[in-house]
Amino acid sequence: MNSKLGVKLGEGGCAEVYAWEGESKIIKLAKPNTIIEALQAELHHSYIAWACGLAVPQPFDMQEVEERWGIVFERVYGDSIMKRFVDTTQERSRHKQLLHVSEDYLHARVTAQMLYQIHSHAVPNMPSQRDNIKHDIQRAQYLSEAEKARVIELMDQIPTKQQLCHGDPNPGNIILRENDAIMIDWNNASVGNPEADLAEYILMIQYAILPVNVPQQAQEALEATREESIRMFIEHYGKLSGIRDADIEPWFVVVAARKLAADGISEEEKGLLVQEIRRRLHSTPL
In b/e form, how buried is each residue of 139-159, taking b as 16+ CB within 10 angstroms? Predict the structure, then answer.
C-alpha cells in the first residue's frame, strides 16, 4: 500500500476518493471504466478553472497507486449541496417541522451565483461544448437516428458562444464550506453556451429520481420543492446575467438528449427524458 494513501473518503461512478499525504490533500483514483486520457483532461480543465481564480480545489498532479491513476487535489472540507439537503430534510422531519417551499433548500441561488462566475470567463484550449454534446447524442440509446439528427440540427441553429461551462452542475458537485461554495468535478468542462449548463441544472432538478438509499423525507422534499427551486435558480441567474427563460428554452431538448448517454442516472429518469424530447420535437416546426 502506498504510504501517502489515507482513508477512503467517498466514491462516485468513475472514481474513489482517498486522503493523500495527511489531511490537506485528496487523491481521486479512477475506476476501470475511466481511461487515463479522461483524467488528463480533467486535470487540464481543473488547472484552467484554478487559473481563472474560480472557487475550485487546487489541482496538483497525477499519481499512480497500485496500477491505478488518480489526480491529487486540495482537500475541501464541507458538505455537498445534496448532502446538506438530505440532512436538512431529515432534521426537519425529526422535529416535525413543516417544509416551507419558499425556502431555498437546494441552494439554487448559490448554484446560480457559482455558474455565473464560471460563465464570466472565456478561455482557450478547452474542448468544444457542441462537439461533446454531438458525440454524446450520437452514442446515446433510446432515440432513433432521425430523432438524433433532428436534435443536432436544432442545436446547430442556436448562435454559438465561447464561454467557460462546467458541464455537470448538479447539487453533488458544489461543496458548501462556511460562507463559500466550491465547484468540483471539472471532467465535462468545455467552451460554449452558458444556457446549456442552465438547461442541464433545470432538467436535473425537474426529473431527478433519487437513489433508493436516500431517506424518504428527502424524496418527498424534492418533490415538494422542485418547481420553486427551478424558479429561484432562473430568477437569480437572470438578474446577474440578463439571460431569460426564452434563451434557455432551445437547449432543453439538446441537453435532454445528451443526458441519455450518462451512466449516473436511472432508466426511469431516462424514460422521462425521452418523453420530454419527443414532446418538444413534436411541437417544434421542421
Answer: ebeebeeebbebbbebbeebe
Dist. CA 191–CA 125, nearest whole Å:
9
The C-alpha atoms of residue 217 and residue 88 are separated, in whole angstroms, by 10
pLDDT tens digits, the chain, 286 residues: what are they? 577 999 999 988 889 999 999 999 999 999 998 899 999 999 999 999 999 999 999 999 999 998 999 999 999 999 999 999 999 998 888 878 877 878 899 999 999 999 999 999 999 989 999 999 999 999 999 999 999 999 999 999 999 999 999 999 999 999 998 878 999 999 999 999 999 999 999 999 999 998 888 888 899 999 999 999 999 999 999 999 999 999 999 999 999 999 999 988 899 999 999 999 999 999 876 6
pTM of the model: 0.94
Domains, the chain, with CATH or none = 5-74 (3.30.200.20), 79-283 (3.90.1200.10)
Q: Residue 204: which residues within 8 A CB-CB, separation 6 or more?
A: 169, 170, 171
